[in-house]
Amino acid sequence: MDLEADIIEFRVPTENNKTLFIWDIQTTFTEAYIYESLWCVYSAFGPLYLLKVCPNASVAAPGFYALVKFYSAAQASKAQRTTDKQRLFQEVPLKVRLSTKQNPSFLSASQSLSHAKCQDLANHYLGYNGWSTHIITVKDVSQCADAGWSLGGDSQEELLKYGCVVKLTLPQHGVTCHGVGVAEETVDRDKGPEEKLWMRGKLMKWAKDKAVVAAFEKLLLIVLGNGKVAVECSIDREEILPDEDVEGVIRINDITWSAPAAAAGEEEDLPWNSSMELSH
């Protein structure tokens, strides 16, 4: 039995050995049909981060090509070997290759997944009942001394900022970790209380979602060849306080002030690595 381990991270996959390039897709079917057909084929090998179907360049023959990005290098490799030179859903065999070159934009650290994609990945490997999150605290930190920059007294805008701490628990694996998230936005001081109340609700949700993402980012899923999953968790001892002390406490000075996490599907605008060797 093959027990080779595959490591899955809760990060946007950037490695070229996780991306498939598919071409020789004919114009027999619509782009939507091609997308659905490819999704059905390749999602059977494992969860997909993204799939894109694009028309060929105007200088090429009419048709389409596709890019498929897996979270797992092993699953991408198996999908390539299995589907290359197969017809799948059309009369002409497809060409399928692993990407072999990276664009400079991929040389930096990988980006965070969206909250929705973290949930999808966790549900796939851990099961819908295999994990849970608990909000420890949500705080208005707009006036916190360590909250970063503040608006001047003459400004017509008011800074609203919320922080959240959540606990992520994987009961079947005996793993618990925490995540911290912060969201901020400015509102016109002249706006009524209804708009400020609506914005505060949005910021609390954004902060909670970012905290959940931060907790998932601490996990490494170790997937064995027999399908079993082990979990490792990296803990920053300086960041997390004991549960009995963390209530009502958010260490604002340790938080990176980034915009709210992207909603599900926004990762599709990330640059794609479409350079690869076409040799057989």
TrEMBL record:
GO biological process: DNA recombination; double-strand break repair
Any Pfam family matching the protein: DSRM_RDM1
The UniProt record lists the keyword Repeat: no
Main location, first listed in the record: cytoplasm
Cellular component GO terms held in the UniProt record: cytoplasm; nucleolus
Keyword check for Cytoplasm: yes
InterPro entries in the cross-refs: DSRM_RDM1, Rad52_Rad59_Rad22_sf, RBD_domain_sf, RDM1, RDM1_RRM, RRM_dom
GO function terms (MF aspect): DNA binding; RNA binding
Cell compartment(s), UniProt: Cytoplasm; Nucleus, Nucleolus
Residue ranges annotated for the RRM domain, each copy included: 18-101
Keywords: Cytoplasm, DNA-binding, Nucleus, RNA-binding
Origin superkingdom: Eukaryota
Protein name per its UniProtKB record: RAD52 motif-containing protein 1
Organism placement in taxonomy: Eukaryota, Metazoa, Chordata, Craniata, Vertebrata
